[in-house]
Known about the structure:
Helix 1 (10-35) runs antiparallel to helix 2 (41-68) and helix 2 runs antiparallel to helix 3. 82% of the residues lie in helices and 0% in strands. The mean pLDDT is 80. The chain is mainly alpha-helical. The chain has three helices and no strands.
Amino acid sequence: MSNNSDRMNPASRALIAGALVGATASGVEQWRQYQRGEKTLEQATSKVLIDATKAGLVSGAAMTVANATAGRPVLTLLTVLSAGVAGMYLLDSMNKRGVDETAE
């Protein structure tokens, strides 16, 4: 029996990989804030889940667009660049929010 029909498409793999990377990056920062007493464990966990979801959605969406533009190098390049910009925007907003929360 073959499992060829059960293989995940690239967008699903990108979504999972993006969520794992987002959870790891956010988890490190949230753990530091928890250890400093800036956040409760529940707040830190919630933030990690939200950040992982955002990163997964951005990665999955970028891969879906990249698959749709396969064979068109210019569109694929624009997709990769826009995914990078979206990732930088996400990281920047995460950092700004962290600064705003500590200022209060």
